[in-house]
Amino acid sequence: xxxxxxxxxGVALVTLDMPGRSMNVIxxxxxQALDGAVTxxxxxxxxxxxxxxxxxxxxxxxxxxGIMPGLxxxxxxxxxxxxxxxxxxxxxxxxERLGKPVIAAASGTALGGGLEVMLACHARIAARNxxxxxxxxxxxxxxxxxxxxxxxxxxxxGLARALPILLQGAPMGAEAALEAGLLDALVAPEDLIPAxxxxxxxxxxxxxxxWDAKGFAMPGPPIGSAEGFAAFIAANAAVALDPGPxxxxxxxxxxxxxxxxxxxxxxxxxxxxxxxxxLVTGPVARALIGLRFDARQRLxxxxxxxxxxxxxxxxxxxxxxxAARLVAxxxxxxRVANAAVAAGIGLAPRPAGEPAPEAEPLPASDLQALARRLxxxxxLAAAGAVRAAxxxxxxxxxxxxxxxxxxxxxxxxxxxxxxxxxxxxxxxxALGLAVPPALAAQGGRFHPEEETA
Length: 453
Hints:
With 453 residues, this protein is of the alpha/beta class. The chain has helices spanning 28-43, 68-71, 78-96, 113-119, 149-157, 159-168, 174-180, 192-201, 226-241, 249-260, 265-280, 283-302, 310-328, 333-342, 367-388, 393-402, 412-419, 421-430, 449-452; strands at residues 2-6, 11-16, 49-54, 102-106, 110-111, 123-127, 134-135, 185-187.
């Protein structure tokens, strides 16, 4: 997995090349291998500098999401999950405190944990590669970077530039990464390793991170300044609107930044891992990973495209109809709309000329209860349409999300499967919603057990 070659100048070229994989990823085996390599490099008196490179066309694509089920297994607490993820973070901390200059030489993409590895190095260069992507997409999966990304990135490029990278999760190309300060240089692919060697030979790579030096100050306004406080206020306001309170990861990221950037790095990394543990053991990360990664992988293997079909359309129409029924029953339209926004529900407008549903007296409810009614109504419609015309559950879930059902649920059918069809039917009946007969059957499922476990 990791091979080390030491030249006659003392430069150690450490190459990561995971066997049997098209791209390198971060998993427990990688953490163990890197830990062993760091120990060996620290002890070898011949080593004067280190180049960390990849044997593949990309650097490290990110964390292997296959390790996630172990972090949300039954009985796994947030604290235990935090301790697990620190196994990776601790190795990266040892790497940046090696006492010898370390340069990351990226042949291509470095996302999530891959970028965290690069940030733990003392310098970062990359090959010019139009297909390479850099960034932190964790927020789109309900998570945050758990191996130091929330703490190293703003210390490297400043809070203002780090906020959109962490909160939006959109990857950027190599040129943009250079401009943002994620990279120190871009070079021709054939010059990647020679350029890294020249940087070491010329003494342009320090053996210490800036944040470990006495008197370090983060680029930009201090975190406790009026400007820093204003940046947090603006970011919190933006998160409250998009993606909204149903998605906890952006708020956790902001908390990591606000708390961690006031602390020394070692304590800051503990804060980050604690927030990661809370997210990874919560329901939203599990649902988003199931929807945006696992479901797409399964459909790709089957050659099925996640297009909105009858079930997804029925789901969207049912939520719109239930919203109209609530309004007709005396709930203010603004309150229903606010409930939908808070839950991340996109309500499709009713067709022009369609009469409003018959009004029924409804008790005043809080926003969460109103949103739950909309979600249950939509999920029932999706379930009824699938039972009438069987379709692949993953395609229905993805199609429904495209049509306005919130992604944090994992999709309507996954939401039903998590509680069980019988329990979901009982909840719907208690709300006075019509339940498809087949849904009430004991043990009825849309996904195989292991897909929503």
